[in-house]
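Lab notebook: predicted structure, single chain.

Context: the supervisor wants predicted structures on file for every construct in the current expression panel, including those that have not yet been purified. This is the next one on the list. No modifications to the sequence; it matches the entry in the shared construct table.
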Amino acid sequence: MNEKIRIPTKEESIKIFKRFTLFSNVENHCVTVAAVASYLAKKVGGLNTDLIFAVALFHDLGKGLTIKELEPEKYSFNPFSEEQKEIWKLQRSFFEPLKNLFSELETIKPGLNKTVHETDLASIIIGALFPDFVHYMHQIGGTNNQVYFEAGPEIKLAHYADWIVHQSNLIDFNKRLDFLFEKYWKGQSDEEKSLRKQNEFALERELFEGLDINPNGLDLVEINKEKTELFDGQYDYFEIKKIDEINI
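Prediction complete. Output recorded below exactly as produced.
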């Protein structure tokens, strides 16, 4: 990793996150992912914890880009403020221009198959403040963009933390993968899904190699303590738990 690249500090990351996040359920999810990622980073050691924290916290920052209508009962525990509504309108205003841009790029590079994703908007927001850091935002990828497999350990760890967290709870990795594939990868064959699972579990083994903890035995007490310390108790109103099933 290039040490000259300016990475937001944890304090800067939280300030940006609080300013631009819109949906309380997404907010709690990102906070949980950041806490789990930070907990794992301490176990691994020798990693850039500011980078891991920022990527984990920002990964869904641009969620408003892809939300067509504000539905409080679906996306937030509380009514949206006028300021939040304006931020959402601003985020949505990027959707069509980005969609048209990707369509144009498709004519130049057929097969690009690039869809508008929340990380595209997150990159715009963060890029205005930390231009070089955007490189890492693009590496986080998603269900249909597996660039994280070629990224460094910080990005892989942030990705893994995201994929073992459903909403604001820990879930068995295999069950989370089944949920994600059912929701976002319906068009893929069983063979493709099986290969993808093999790659994801290989990434998990890579992250846990040499550690004295089991992927299914993460310490919830330590993770919740990490959440409290990272965010000065702002999110102590919810507890990170382990769930056995995902209710669809």
